[in-house]
Amino acid sequence: MVARVISVEPFDIVVFGATGDLAKRKLIPALYERCLAGQMPAECRVIAVSRRPMSAEDFRAIARTAVEESTSKPDPETLSRFLDLCQYVAVDAVSDEGWSDLCARLQAGEDRVRVFYLAVGPDLFDDICGRIGSHNLVTPKTRVVVEKPVGKNLASAKAVNAAVGKVFPEEAVFRIDHYLGKETVQNLMALRFANALFEPIWNQGHVDHVQITVAESLGVAGRAGYYDTAGALRDMVQNHMLQLLCLVAMEPPVSMDADSVRDEKLKVLKALEPIDERNAQHLTVRGQYRAGASAGGAVPGYQEELGAGEPSETETFVAIKAQIGNWRWAGVPFYLRTGKRLASRVSEIVVAFKPIPHSVFDASAGQIIANHLVIRLQPDEGVKLWLMIKDPGPGGMRLQHVPLDMSFAEAFGVRNVDAYERLIMDVVRGNQTLFMRRDEVEAAWTWIDPILEAWRTSRETPRPYTAGTWGPSAAIALIERDGRTWMDDA
Ligand code: BG6
């Protein structure tokens, strides 16, 4: 099957932070791939912006390397066509230097869709948006893309949102959470709302619990400076994991339009039962990796990666037992866990159904295991529905637990499109469905802040775990004391 390409009109994308890590690893390769797919008209312009003076040719060399590093065999003709779309302007975010140059470039494309992509730290959002505004660069077709983290807590998120909101109306603001652009995450919506099978049992009457795991095998090397100011709760839970939880738990939206979907996600965030100093010790576990082994080799611990200095109390692992206080989910725990340097890289959602109420089989048939649905985001995207079936052949009734397994790569034979490719094109098309609205981001922080505060005031430090394992043993106890277990190999 070939992925369908929906054409767009020529547009300009202005990337602030164009020589930074995100631009090189994600944005430039994503734009090249859209070129290869035939979705970038030849009149498009990629206007790369950063502070460092350099020529367009210098930037094109950086872009070429970025593409070559992201794909094993770039198509030479497409790569040169893509590089021809790239321009470079040196602009200082915190002074007026370079802005007149940028204005002059943009004058040529007044009528087209204009995207400002802020691939920079949030401390620069205010300055950049302010200057975009004061230089009158906002046209009716202008959009701004804001990268996470949007703030460090509720107060700073509000300040970021207010700074962006002074210049851009909410319908022009695209707060990116790249997890929403992952193929399987969207498939979760297809699974729930395009099939009659699941919705009637998608509730506390039939679901025992839900597990959401986002495990990484890498450490923080290279990003330790940022990471140490964030930690796993801010870096992964406040955004990616809560977004996944919302998509599992939300009511069916009236339609797939942006506000219908976002209204439903917001209701879930507001229904999350508070975790604070009264119950955080019981409902959360934080950890930090020590030296260990990963992918067969020895790896250093978090403190070593951070370098000399005060011992850090930043968590590289979090497990949380969350509850959603509404009619659909009352009493159904949502167990979340995420961490760096875990046993393997795997992200998945497991919806565990309740056991059958009564067995008609005798003991020789074997144990009847409750059904569960596994929605795997990575590494191999797909959906598995675990069922009980009869062992084939004669010899009486013996039951087996087997998956109905649909691996998307095998089923459709298409290239796995990176989330950024989809999301950038959604910005160009003006579709905000897969982007976070201001009130959603703030509602997520409203739930996260008391957890941070509880950790800050507790005398406990993150529990150590060995790199290459599934985190601290307390995370296993968190679920096992409820008589359940993490499904590490679902
Ligand atoms: C980012 C986090 O948002 O997501 C990183 O800042 C994390 O710390 C990354 O590694 C994980 O994304 P993915 O798509 O590789 O699962």
Outline:
The protein is α/β, with parallel strands linked by helices.
Which descriptor suits the 3D outline?
Answer: globular
* Number of H- or I-type helical stretches: 16
Number of strands: 17
| Terminal Cα span | 27 Å
Instruction: Identify the strand order in the major beta sheet.
Output: 16-15-14-13-7-12-11-8-17
Looking at CATH, which topology of the largest domain would you report? Dihydrodipicolinate Reductase, domain 2
Structural class: alpha/beta
Name the average pLDDT. Answer: 94
Computed Rg? 24 Å
Strand content: 15-25%
Ligands in the model, by name, code or SMILES, are: 6-O-phosphono-beta-D-glucopyranose
Q: Which properties best describe this structure?
A:
490 residues, 21% strand, Rossmann fold, binds 6-O-phosphono-beta-D-glucopyranose, alpha/beta, six-stranded parallel beta sheet, Dihydrodipicolinate Reductase, domain 2, nine-stranded mixed beta sheet
